Amino acid sequence: MKIEKDYMGRSNFMLCKLGLLVLALAEASSATLSPTGVNYEVEALAAIKSDLIDPHNVLENWDSNSVDPCSWRMVTCTPDGYVSALGLPSQSLSGILSPAIGNLSNLQSVLLQNNAISGPIPTSIGNLVKLQTLDLSNNNFNGDIPDSLGNLKNLNYLRLNNNSLTGPFPESLSTVGLTLVDLSFNNLSGSLPKISARTFKIVGNPLICGVKAANCSAVFPEPLSFPPDALKESDSGTKRRHMTIVLGASFSAVFGVIIIIGLLVWLRYRHNQQIFFDVNDQYDPEVCLGHLRRYTFKELRAATDHFNSKNILGRGGFGIVYKGSLNDGTLVAVKRLKDYNTAGGEIQFQTEVEMISLAVHRNLLRLCGFCSTENERLLVYPFMPNGSVASRLRDHIHGRPALDWARRKRIALGTARGLVYLHEQCDPRIIHRDVKAANILLDEDFEAVVGDFGLAKLLDHRESHVSTAVRGTVGHIAPEYLSTGQSSDKTDVFGFGILLLELITGQRALDFGRVANQKGVMLDWVKKLHQEGKLNLMVDKDLRGKLDRVELEEMVQVALLCTQFNPLYRPKMSEVLKMLEGDGLAEKWEASQKVETPRFRPCDPRQRYSDFIEESSLVLEAMELSGPR
Q1: Which residue from 351, 284, 308, 364 is spatially nearest to 111, judged by alpha carbons?
Q2: What's the rounded Cα separation, in Å, for the pair 102 and 146?
Q3: Are residues 74 and 98 in contact, defined by beta-carbon separation less than 8 angstroms?
Q4: Do 62 and 46 touch, CB atoms closer than 8 A?
Q5: Which is the most buried residue in 73, 405, 409, 593, by most CB within 10 A?
Q6: Is 255-383 assigned to CATH 3.30.200.20?
Q7: Strand partners, 39
Q8: Residue 119: beta bridge partners?
Q9: Rounded CA gap, 172 and 153, in Å?
């Protein structure tokens, strides 16, 4: 009986502990649940969705019955499952922004630029104390800027430009140290705001700047002021005692400075002897700039197995790309830049990397983080499991081409949308300068993702439209760029036209002369076949008989419009996108046929693209970055 009682006692004790454990787990999980028993972040996102008008169904998989929003489109989560970023730029959204956004308490980044969202900015955004980036630019927001934004002490980037905001700038924000504040082109009133920011824009607010905007032509941040002297003494005796202490301590301070200087000299000597010394090891890897993570060199070296050649995904003019695995198992692509501008300095590099990272679009490769040391500059991107368009053009899956005609059309549309964003919607606007199949990556769904954008600017601090060394790949570079070194958005349009030809032919322009056993370059060959009406000869043999002849003709016409020698004749990328979607191609094509001599400049005897290549006196950096990354 005693044994039975002891057993029953132990059993009851264990059941009690188990019950307490279950209660504890239930209590912990209920921290993420709303009073209705639903995940409060799912509930908040569902409310945001319901208040937005979504004509293209980009929020289609935002299911309010789901328990986990981390797999939803345009939503990014922390490793422990909390929503950390909401990125919906350029999605044609309208409606209003729900105050429920204030319930996403772990948000670090909100990117809703280039939509048509109206109504007031919710005051509840002031609850997002972890927020680092808020971009509501190019919408129709109205009303006052909420005072509650002054609660966002971690805020780095604030873009509210090109809206219809009114009233004064809240005083509460003057105490927040920011990297960039853009309030331009609103209807704000009151006095000129006092802001501590590296970049501050407020032009286009006539009630503040005046009609001629002279008061706002050059606005600089307020100089940081020292706090009042808290050590003022009321009597002279106390002051004398204070001075005595200072003088006594100064001798120790001088001796300490001498030791520190000697230590720094020794460290400099050590650093010069060891090129891979990581000067950033003192940084906490969790420290972020904007919404980017800053990695240590040691961390990325370990992730890539000391930059093992077996992990190389691609090589190119900007550097080598390695596959890496972080400590938490996340696969990344690490680009080790080979041509960073040492004269620019670390602060300039960080600023430009952060600006590039603000270009967020579903068809652009997202920058996750970076590493900057005295001798190294590295960029960290998500790993793209399906590689690049160039690497998959000749691949087959179960005997069928990996990229069938439907996928190639979708790749063309996705790439066009990404370039439209860079050229016309991103701030600052970005010229890619190396658009080709090897730089168009493919995610797990074979969706096109434009990579390497902004690197030409990042690595070249000369005038944006002039470069003495042409960056790009032979066969993809626009004639005017080859001839003069001048690039523009029309340079990218030319590269996109060559990309379309790569999708149609299944060949790379760079290898065309050797692989296809054809004389000249791909563009000249395609023009000749098109004039002769022999489209079937240019189509990838894997696609013959498996595509629509009308669609083929239309894509060839778009490619030829994009690759006209005179950049003035080429359409803008937004026009190219419309033509690919079936709007305006016939009119553009007919107009192009009326141009008598569509050459690069009047009286130019060159009529073939190969002529420009042969006559170019500029240095060409042929880049191949075709591996998955």
Answers
A1: 364
A2: 13
A3: no
A4: yes
A5: 405
A6: yes
A7: 33
A8: 141
A9: 10
Q: Which two structure tokens, joined as six digits, stand for 411?
A: 């790749």
E strand or H helix that includes residue 225: none
Alpha helix stretches (DSSP H) within 38-165: 40-51
As a whole number of angstroms, the distance between CA 11 and CA 420 comes to 68
Q: Is the Cβ–Cβ distance between 92 and 49 less than 8 Å?
A: no
The closest alpha carbon to 423, from 496, 476, 503, 480, belongs to 496
For residue 155, the model assigns a pLDDT of 87
pLDDT means over runs of 10, the chain (629 residues): 50 48 40 57 92 89 80 80 84 92 92 91 94 91 92 88 91 81 89 78 84 54 34 38 42 50 46 32 40 86 93 80 92 82 60 75 88 87 90 82 91 94 82 87 91 66 43 74 78 93 84 50 85 88 85 93 91 94 88 62 53 53 37
**324 in helix, strand or coil?**
strand
For 525, residues 6+ apart whose C-beta sits below 8 A from its C-beta are 512, 516, 518, 538
Which residues are tagged catalytic?
Answer: 434
3-state DSSP helix/strand/coil percent for the chain, to nearest 5?
A: 40, 15, 45
* Count of Cβ atoms closer than 10 Å to residue 49 Cβ: 19
Each as own residue / partner, the long-range contacts of residues 11-14 (CB below 8 Å, 24 or more positions apart, any chain) are none
- The per-residue pLDDT for 218 is 47
d(CA 629, CA 322): 8
How far, in Å, CA of 187 to CA of 142, rounded? Answer: 9
Q: CA 234 to CA 219: how far, in whole Å? A: 41
Cα–Cα distance list, 496 to 152, 412, 466, 583 (Å): 41, 9, 20, 18
Closest to 419 (Cα-Cα) out of 472, 499, 489, 342: 489
Strands (E) across 96-195 are located at 109-111, 118-119, 133-135, 140-143, 157-159, 164-167, 178-182, 187-188
Cα(61)–Cα(69) distance, rounded to whole angstroms? Answer: 9
CA distance to 116, 163, 220, per residue, from 424 (Å): 16, 17, 26
What is the spatial distance between Cα 364 and Cα 451, in angstroms, rounded to a whole number? 6
pLDDT for 434: 84
- Domain-wise residue ranges, the chain: 40-216, 255-383, 386-621
Class of domain 40-216: alpha beta
* Rounded CA separation 153/174 (Å): 11
- 234 with 227: CB under 8 angstroms? no
Query: Taking the C-alpha atoms of 308, 309, 314 and 316 in order, what is their torsion angle to the nearest 10 degrees?
Result: 100
Q: What is the dihedral of CA 356, 357, 360, 364, to 10 degrees?
A: 70
SS (H, E, C) 453-510: CCHHHHCCCCCCCECCEEECCCCCCCHHHHHHCECCHHHHHHHHHHHHHHHHHCCCHH
User: What tokens were used for 323?
Assistant: 């596959």
Class of domain 386-621: mainly alpha
User: In the numeric block, which tokens belong to residue 140?
Assistant: 């129709």
Contact 546, 399 (CB under 8 A): no
By C-alpha distance, which of 89, 133, 88 is closest to 107?
133
Q: Omega into 428 within 30° of 0, i.e. cis? A: yes
Q: Which amino acid is at 550?
A: V
